[in-house]
Amino acid sequence: MAEATCDIGLIGLAVMGQNLVLNMNDHGFKVCVFNRTTSKVDEFLADEAKGTQIEGAHSLEELCSKLKTPRRVMIMVKAGDVVDKTIESLLPYLEKGDIVIDGGNSLFTDSNRRTKELAEKGLHYIGTGVSGGEEGARFGPSIMPGGDPAAWPAVKPIFQAIAAKVEDGTPCCDWVGEGGAGHYVKMVHNGIEYGDMQLIGEAYQLLKDGLGLTADEFEAVFAEWNKGELDSYLIEISTTIFGKKDDDGQPIIDKILDTAGQKGTGKWTAIDALDNGMPVTLIGESVFARCLSALKDERVVASKVLHGPKQEKIPAEHKAEFIEEVRRALYCSKMVSYAQGYMLLRSAEKVQGWTLNMGGVALMWRGGCIIRSAFLGDIKKAFDKDEKLTNLLLDDFFSGALNKYQASWRKALIHAIELGVPTPAFSTALAFYDGYRTERLPANLLQAQRDFFGAHTYERLDKPRGEFFHTNWTGRGGRVSSTTYNA
Ligand code: ATR
């Protein structure tokens, strides 16, 4: 029998798993690792983990036998059935009170289910989002844990030690909520990441097609942007990307095929938004924009058949002004995107029965993860001021910035339309902004139409909410109205 000296076990030595293990080791935790293909355990111990106190196991039984009790076992395998199968295989070697942690990109409904299933067996389950890619996992990711709160005290010291820290040392990791709340917040994070990337892409194309900026000029513009309101990891890496040259000295960015891949978390966010009736339009558009980009061959054909406007470039004397308009459009759209993401979190609280710490979520995203930015500090402040804030756009800081910049945002979009440059995310953000601030939308006509063809009834402005009316619009319809009324 091996001595049970390890603080935590980790299953799955792909990139994220390996780096998390090294990170835990750096912080003084003794980790035991296992991987299905056991040769990877040996390779890892002989290579990356050489000289550390990391131990290896060639079976789950051996792994569990090396862990102090209550055992903490973290699973970092492919999301989906593999997680269930891994948990199933672990069960014979676990005892009541042990903790199973899933750090993969699991769907939150799976984490809801697993938390319940393991609780029934006397085990504690944590489903945690981990963001930051390879580098984050190694030196400080953003960690978003949810699941069984009874397990949190035993996991907290490890997670908070290895997580990224903001300027004052606060870790980008805190308890998110019960069941699948951690994976849910990670899903919304990924959706927002889709949105941020799409917005940056639209700014890039607008400046490229509108001004003909070169990669070197982009490098300079983005470096400047990164010093101000847009200060963020994604703007920072884009700056580096623009500066990177291929072997022939030409910018690599100009040689990369324009078709985007996706692994599905953006789509999950959009589907969940539709399921919950939340207008998270920007993430939806960002997913669709990736889908459209993937239709490269069709686009090449269409580019020769379908005409756009005669593309006049923006006059050189307006270059600086246009760059600033695009920057403001990006910033305003980003505010809308985060406001929509937080609307989704608010609705999830109601649907799932969670209480999410909105400021805490902003703090967890503030460092370590892909969407980290100075801007998340402003979001945190907004929730610190008012933890019940219904919509970020109503916070003084955000409404002030939007009121100040909205004219420039509109001008950037007018140019986009005139140039024929596609800006689905910028445009949907503005449409949302205008819709959200409109007291009377045309849904009165829509309700009249529904009542006309389906007797769906309507409410009236001059009567209290909850009273439903039906009009016999043509004089021919019956008197029976639909009994279901879904606002
Ligand atoms: P990546 O993160 O590189 O895309 P992945 O395919 O998602 O890799 O797999 C990540 C981890 O899940 C690996 O540790 C992998 O084990 P192998 O090294 O043996 O491939 C693990 N994994 C994938 N499918 C698995 C399965 N059916 N059973 C157990 N582990 C599995």
Protein architecture, described:
With 487 residues, the chain is α/β, with parallel strands linked by helices. 53% of the residues lie in helices and 7% in strands. The chain is built from 19 helices and 8 strands. The protein has helices at residues 15-26, 39-46, 60-65, 81-90, 108-120, 133-139, 152-162, 181-211, 215-225, 233-243, 265-275, 281-294, 296-305, 319-352, 358-366, 375-385, 396-419, 424-436, 443-454, and strands spanning 8-11, 31-34, 55-56, 72-75, 99-102, 124-131, 142-147, 177-178. It has an 8-stranded mixed sheet, with helices on both faces. Strand 7 (142-147), helix 7 (152-162) and strand 8 form a beta-alpha-beta unit. Helix 1 packs parallel to helix 6 and helix 8 packs across helix 12 (281-294). The chain is globular, with a radius of gyration of 26 Å. The protein starts with 7 loop residues before the first strand and ends in a 33-residue tail after the last helix. The site of 2'-monophosphoadenosine-5'-diphosphate has 12 residues, from helix 4.
- For the secondary structure, the number of strands is 8
Helices and strands, in N-to-C order?
Answer: EHEHEHEHEHEHEHEHHHHHHHHHHHH
Estimate what percentage of residues fall within beta strands: 5-15%
Derived from helix and strand composition plus strand pairing, the structural class reads alpha/beta
Oligomeric grouping of the chains? single chain
Helix content: 40-55%
Count up the helices: 19
Q: Round the mean pLDDT to the nearest integer and report it.
A: 96
Which small molecules are bound?
Answer: 2'-monophosphoadenosine-5'-diphosphate
Which word captures the global form?
globular
Strand order of the largest sheet: 3-2-1-4-5-6-7-8
Rg for CA atoms: 26 Å
Low-confidence stretches: none
Largest sheet: 8 strands, mixed
Q: End-to-end span in angstroms?
A: 63 Å
